[in-house]
Amino acid sequence: MKKIFLAAIVLGVFASGLWAKKDGLTEEEAQLKIQQCQQKVDSLNAVLENLNKKLAALQDEVKPVDEEIASISKEIEDLKAEIAKYPSEYTVQKGDYLAKIAAMRYIYNNAKAWPRIYRANRDKIKNPNLIYPGWVLKIPHGLVTEIEVIPGDCLWKIAGFTWIYNDPLQWPKIYKANKDKIKDPDLIYPGQILSIPRD
Asked: Does the predicted TM-score (pTM) go above 0.70?
């Protein structure tokens, strides 16, 4: 593009010379016009060179950002592949029990997380100590932002769940986020849907 631009300028200079002859300019006047055109070409070349330097500098600045984007994209793809390994359902096998299932690597890798499976399958599981081969259980994953109160729950117990805060002492966070539903923090009722703040 630079060569085409310069060729156009040179052609313009040549054309100016022809017009100068036609208009009856002296040789000195024609030379002066050529010098003026050459100065313009030099000036434009300097501007073009400066712009090329700026472009190169910007490309150098963008390169690390492009590399970081590529790295993050790869990390996202790797995470998606890892998440795909975690089943959303599990078929109960002979000898299984909820804590055993929860402890499996691609379930929760944590036996203490068994209540999460129980809560997600209360339509099927009446007694958490009794599950049967062939049952297909839902296995919830992801960050919980709300929870349904079931019989036996209290704020302290909910806060202590591994998938909530894993710390019973964090119960005031749930209370503060649900003051519109909870009048007394010692009294919560089955069926209530409580928000779980994550800030």
From this structure: no
